């Protein structure tokens, strides 16, 4: 079997689904990353807001955009368990990673005394990368369920704003 045929075979199986999800997650994540950076920079460097407030608002904007992208593209092939179940879990996971991000930016800004926009942006970037790894893992495990491993209670909620 040639390399191209093996690659096609892999992409059709579970590895392929993982690759597709990672690819779409990356594209959505990259767009939301740029959005987060732009909003943070706009609010902190040009809007006169404090660093942590800027990070909070930038994260809220990028999180909302990310949910739409992930639900309807990145994890579109996964079980639809209803917005009433998915969205609160998505928000809880993002809330936890937001607290992590705020903690990192606050640590750099206050105890370390950094006020330079470039240093704070570096802390922001580090916090985004760390949160991304946590989010991808948590979304796949708890928010957007594998259709083959769908628990019985999910079947009862199939019509719950699922589509």
TrEMBL record:
UniProt-recorded name of the protein: GtrA family protein
Species this protein is from: Blastococcus saxobsidens
Membrane topology (UniProt): Multi-pass membrane protein
Keywords: Membrane, Transmembrane, Transmembrane helix
Domain GtrA/DPMS transmembrane: 25-144
Entry-linked PROSITE patterns: PROKAR_LIPOPROTEIN
Compartments in which it is found: Membrane
Parts of the chain that traverse the membrane: 21-44, 56-77, 89-112, 118-138
A cellular component annotation (GO) from this entry: plasma membrane
Family according to the record: Belongs to the GtrA family.
Gene Ontology biological process: polysaccharide biosynthetic process
Domain of life (superkingdom): Bacteria
Transferase as UniProt keyword: no
